[in-house]
Amino acid sequence: MIRNFFFLFYIFILNGCLDQEIYTEINEPRFISHPPESLRINDFEGNLKSDFKRDPNALIFLDVYIHSAHCTNAKSKSLGADFDGYIRITLTEKNTTIARAQMDFKGEPKKEHVQKVYIGLMQTLKWQ
């Protein structure tokens, strides 16, 4: 009985540590449920899969930004950190932010992380 309790407690704690939360912010609510026909996408590393038509002349710009912290300070390494970087996806129209989503990550960023942030943003905007 006690062993089962500790096992479930461990799974509960581990699940909380592995589940990355996506933080979203909508600045222009008029875009909710009104997706554009195409997007101008800045994803230099090719991590993003999108069903939107990619158009270099589209008015709506989607920017994928990945920030990785590369700290070599021994004190910082020994204390650890909650995350090593973040992925931010921002939608803009004529230099005005429409919406953005961000997720912290531990380790190296993966394509799955980028896709998870993208899907979270699309669902928040009701574009999927």
Q: Short description, anyone?
A:
The protein has 128 residues and is an alpha/beta fold. The protein is built from 3 helices and 6 strands; from the N terminus they run αββββαββα.
Using brief descriptors, characterize the structure shown.
6 strands; alpha/beta; globular; 128 residues
Question: Distance between termini?
Answer: 45 Å
What's the count of strands? 6
Q: How many discrete structural domains?
A: 1
Total of helices: 3
Q: Roughly what is the average pLDDT, rounded to an integer?
A: 84
Strand content: 25-35%
Q: Are there runs of 5+ residues with pLDDT below 50, and where?
A: 11-16
- Report the structural category: alpha/beta
Rg, Cα atoms, Å: 18 Å
Helix content range: 25-40%
Main β-sheet, in a few words?
6 strands, mixed
* Order of strands, widest sheet: 1-6-5-4-2-3
- The H-and-E topology, N to C, reads as HEEEEHEEH
Question: What spatial form do the alpha-carbon principal axes imply?
Answer: globular
Chain oligomer state = single chain
Describe this structure in words.
This protein is α/β, with parallel strands linked by helices and 128 residues long. It has one domain (21-125). Helix content is 30%, strand content 31%. The longest helix is centred in the N-terminal third of the chain and has 17 residues, at 2-18. The model is unreliable at 11-16 (pLDDT under 50).
